[in-house]
Amino acid sequence: MPPKGKGNRKKKGKGKGNSKETKCKATSDLYFPKEVVFDILSRLPVKDLLQFRCVCKQWNKLIYKPNFIAAHFRRSSSLQRSGSSLIIGSRHQESNNHVLSLYNPPDSLVELDSPFPCFFPNMYIVGPTNGIVCLFNPPWGELITLWNPAMKQYKMVQLSESLPIQGLHSLASVGVAFNYQQNDLLVLRIFCVELLSPVPNHIEMYSTKTGRWKKLKNEMVFYIGEFLCNAIVKGVPYWFVCMPDKFGVRAVFMRFDVGKTVFEKLPSIGPRRQHQFLVDLENSLCMLDWDHKDDCRIDVWVLDDVDRWSMKYSVGPLIGFDRILGCLRNGDIVAKNDKGVVFLCDPITSSIKEKFSLDTSKVGSHVIVDYSESLFLFAGMLPVKKQDAQDKLARKKITRACLKFLMGQPSEIVIP
After folding, report:
1. Residue ranges of domains in the chain, CATH in brackets
2. Where do the segments described as Disordered lie (predicted)?
């Protein structure tokens, strides 16, 4: 018999390079440095990255790291400037259900599974912010849903204990912000006082990091007539407001300082025309200013880093548009004609780039917002279910919350 030596028998167990994890690590490290792998993966669509989680543990961990998520979103946003993706909210003409669709020009519309219960009469869309879209019901925003369409996950925000005061508050205005220092998505709800009321607005903020609402200090008196903020630029929400002064009431812009959690007043432009629209244009706050007429021209104003307004350019004349819906981050003007056909118009040449029709939607029911996909998720998010199952769950949870509230039980109820 040959002697039993170390070299005369095979070692049991996993040898070096035998596991899939080691092979993947060795292959990626041998041919591509980690920085190169990071750079390549951060340029891929979310759909592909979710499939690549199965390649190896290193890739799976990388995709969920905050620095990778931030780098991926920056690249996703920069690519959007050459061709925007759109989230379109509407009401179905026959069923009257809320419909959420994704449009990637020049592809066709794709209907998405909606996380918002269709039995609520109205749905407003705020955002997106860092890839998260906020859906809520007016006039008080009791049901707020945060949704990542690319990741197909959502969370219904915990119900707030605050209630509007009859005769003082007219509506609640909802905005969304993002604190990049804390990696925290914030929801703002402002109980707006009636015009000429001397009482400051009640302002509260929900943090996805803590999962709690808290009241913010506010001594400023200003009036908001909109259910949602007018624009969000680099995680900062902006509003058109009316503010009293010694000459009466004048229109100004307000910005929410995310770091200080306070509202700031911005300088106004001066005399304006019939319509104004705040937009995020190439990561800057811009205002569209125009009159509603057959051959209207749109003046585009931009706010610089020192809070000064200047004319960026003028677009037009635009002919054949029944209504201007806004402006995308890449500068395309969004408008529709009297037949309900939506146009994307190049602001430089005034030519039509894309057009599509929402045949099954109610006239005037659709809302169109820019969308940059993101990997960002936060605690408590769940996969979006089919509409019937989602509505059944929402009805059950909301009914239970209402019963507990009426019975005087603790109202810290989380609706998943």
Report:
1. 17-64 (no CATH), 78-401 (2.120.10.80)
2. 1-22
